[in-house]
Amino acid sequence: MRMNIVHIGAEELNYEIRKIADVANEVERLSGQPMAWENIGDPVQKGEHIPDWIKDIISEAVQQDRTYAYSPTRGLLRTREFLADRCNARGGVRITPEDIIFFNGLGDAVNKVYYLLRREARVIGPSPAYSTHSSAEAGHAGYPPITYRLDPANHWMPDLEELRNKVKYNESIAGIMIINPDNPTGAVFPREVIREMVAIAREYKLFIVADEIYMNMVFQNRENYAPISELIEDVPAISLKGISKEIPWPGARCGWMEVYNQKDNPIFQKYIKSILDAKMLEVCSTTLPQTVIPDILGHPQYNDWQVERNRFFEKRSRRAGEIFGKCPGVIVNPPAGAFYLSVVFDKQLTDDMQLRIENDRVRTYLESQIPPNAEADRRFVYQLLGARNICTVPLSSFVTDLFGFRCTLLERDDEKFESIYTSLADAIQEFVHSGYVAAV
Ligand SMILES: Cc1ncc(COP(=O)(O)O)c(C=O)c1O
Description:
Number of domains: 2
CATH superfamily of the largest domain: Type I PLP-dependent aspartate aminotransferase-like (Major domain)
Bound molecules: pyridoxal-5'-phosphate
Largest sheet: 8 strands, mixed
Helix content: 40-55%
Oligomer: single chain
Radius of gyration: 22 Å
CATH class of the largest domain: Alpha Beta
Number of helices: 14
CATH topology of the largest domain: Aspartate Aminotransferase, domain 2
């Protein structure tokens, strides 16, 4: 090559959630045993049934020629009016349809949020963090992510003192990113925590990016939760929302951005305009899902159905807490929202810890896939594929130095859920004790 054509941030792009699926597929083929897919947050893949009334709305829309057309770059006006009214009805900050922009899934929105920032401007995000955010932010900057700690010993609450200090002493930090409810921890941050983060943003003249894709999936202490629109007051912010998890329709590739307080902030306004202009170059986002959003979210059965879904996740969260509660060697906080659970090993992991893999071909294949300097939790997760046919994601791939793994509450089948979770608890015991025995 005449010159190095690789982007400065190329090393920062990493999405283990999908990468591990390739290895798991091969293990499934070699072992002839079905894999339990706990790596990805796709409720449909895990057996969730889409209610008939939602399918009827979509079927009817599919019959209309206009749903095959391009839509306006910002998104369909009727849908943006519906969403702006919904936001305004909650109280707090007020928006108009002009403050909403649609994207091809939130993944698309997340990429544009960071890509269109000035290179030197950094956004501090949680650790652990959902990798789409941390990778896109770090990829744009060409440096590793800047993070504030979520504390597993304190229900995964953010270390606000660390956040304040990092913001205070690092002038390149221009924004704070929050995921609430959180992926990968399942934590829901209460109002007072978010108010404090907003106060830090106000004091240091930062903007906030709040990923609220799970905002209607809070099943514990609901009264303590509020979306950022209710708490943001005068601070410039972006709220990211979507239908991938809520309807659930991840294959629709449809999400949107609500922009708060852009009018009084010319720089922020210009930045938002650059996001819209970038979207304009792509013409628009998917039309069909936008068309049906008001009819689905405004349907008389919608709220009751959400309540029922949340009861299901609450039941799963409680049971997961019971199973891991009897499992020494790990810290587990039963999720209060979203549908992920992060397990953290609370003892030192050593290189000799391992899981027994009976199938020789699977063991040999996995050994070839685990780099010699792999993090201890990556070894656990890879060996788990061969030893238990369960595919999770190593916690260390979520920008954290904690070791553990992420699994989900999504399994619809009670027996399968029970079997996956008891097998995980059993594997943890085998792994942490194998090192001890080897050492003796
Ligand atoms: C916190 C968070 N934000 C964004 C996304 C991406 O959602 P979408 O399917 O709309 O791209 C996900 C998907 O798992 C997520 O967990």
